């Protein structure tokens, strides 16, 4: 991520102008500060502190921020009435008492669901009666609560289901001044989604997610949507094609407990000017190994564990 995006470059060029408004200069500084911060290691709270509280609820987000996470990770779907909703799955069954697809329900219907009781059953060691009142949240809710005081790491989920998602998301981020204030990263497994966002606003830092798993032969790793070949066969040209629109890559580390990337993958991505943010790491020994390999950030359900590991390394 060594190059400044065109729109930011234009804004910085204006810094020499005597007619530049002070607020514009402050915004350019804020976006540049975010880009500098991204060169340092980032703690990304995966669905909030979702190891300790029901994912994508106030409980998980507030805990993540209290633990000192650098970014709140949000997975975004759309309701039937076009609202941006923070939820991971396409369907409601796993994390609510609802049924069917998110996109088949209005926001009012989604807001009526219990989004926390499932956690108490799945994770009795961290259960809390209060979680039974947890509700699904919209992106509006989250931004209304935290504003520009927090950085958001937003994933566009299932963009083929919601062709209008990119436009709605960028419009919201711009309306809330979250791009120029350096408060947002957008990530996706969909190359098309990221390219559309890049076209809409080239200042938004983007991360291309990658999912490696064995192909039909049960051995050779394949990337889910074909964004890259197997990690063993990635060329600089493959990484450069991603660097045309994105600032980094977000690969899985493990498939069924076995590593799918190694130190060489990270080195090669860096050589091609790409950040590497690896998901989803909850084990301290794995965090230490990936830190040794030079990753630029980790997604974790347990931000406090990652902060502990970082403190050890200081
Ligand atoms: O966004 C990084 C990681 O969260 C991708 O996997 O399935 O947890 O959204 P998933
Ligand atoms: Ca995600």
From TrEMBL:
<dbReference type="GO" id="GO:0006629">
    <property type="term" value="P:lipid metabolic process"/>
</dbReference>
<feature type="signal peptide">
    <location>
        <begin position="1"/>
        <end position="28"/>
    </location>
</feature>
<dbReference type="InterPro" id="IPR030395">
    <property type="entry name" value="GP_PDE_dom"/>
</dbReference>
<dbReference type="Pfam" id="PF03009">
    <property type="entry name" value="GDPD"/>
</dbReference>
<dbReference type="InterPro" id="IPR017946">
    <property type="entry name" value="PLC-like_Pdiesterase_TIM-brl"/>
</dbReference>
<dbReference type="GO" id="GO:0008081">
    <property type="term" value="F:phosphoric diester hydrolase activity"/>
</dbReference>
<protein>
    <submittedName>
        <fullName>Glycerophosphodiester phosphodiesterase</fullName>
    </submittedName>
</protein>
<keyword id="KW-0732">Signal</keyword>
<feature type="domain" description="GP-PDE">
    <location>
        <begin position="41"/>
        <end position="310"/>
    </location>
</feature>
């Amino acid at each position: 991520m060594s190059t400044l995006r065109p729109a930011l470059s234009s804004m910085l060029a204006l810094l020499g102008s005597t007619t530049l408004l002070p607020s514009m200069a402050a915004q350019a500084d804020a976006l540049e500060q975010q880009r500098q911060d991204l060169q340092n290691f980032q703690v990304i709270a995966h669905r909030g502190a979702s190891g300790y509280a029901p994912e994508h609820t106030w409980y998980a987000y507030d805990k993540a921020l209290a633990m000192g996470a650098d970014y709140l990770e949000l997975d975004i779907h759309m309701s039937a009435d076009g609202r941006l909703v923070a939820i991971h799955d396409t369907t409601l069954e796993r994390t609510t008492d609802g049924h069917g697809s998110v996109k088949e329900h209005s926001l009012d219907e989604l807001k009526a669901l219990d989004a926390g009781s499932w956690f108490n059953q799945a994770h009795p060691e961290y259960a809390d009666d209060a979680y039974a009142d947890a509700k699904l949240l919209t992106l509006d809710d989250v931004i209304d609560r935290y504003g520009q005081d927090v950085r958001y790491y937003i994933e566009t989920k299932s963009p083929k289901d919601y062709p209008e998602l990119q436009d709605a998301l960028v419009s919201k981020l711009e309306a809330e001044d979250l791009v120029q204030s350096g408060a947002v990263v957008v990530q996706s497994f969909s190359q098309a989604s990221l390219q559309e966002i890049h076209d809409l606003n080239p200042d938004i830092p983007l991360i291309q997610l990658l999912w490696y798993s064995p192909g039909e032969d049960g051995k050779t790793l394949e990337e889910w949507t074909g964004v890259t070949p197997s990690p063993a066969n990635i060329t600089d040209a493959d990484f450069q094609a991603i660097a045309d629109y994105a600032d980094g890559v977000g690969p899985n580390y493990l498939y069924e407990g076995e590593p799918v990337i190694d130190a060489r993958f990270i080195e090669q991505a860096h050589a091609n000017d790409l950040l590497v943010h690896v998901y989803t790491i909850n084990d301290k020994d794995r965090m230490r190994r990936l830190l040794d390999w030079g990753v630029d950030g980790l997604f974790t359900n347990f931000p406090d564990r990652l902060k502990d590991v970082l403190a050890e390394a200081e």
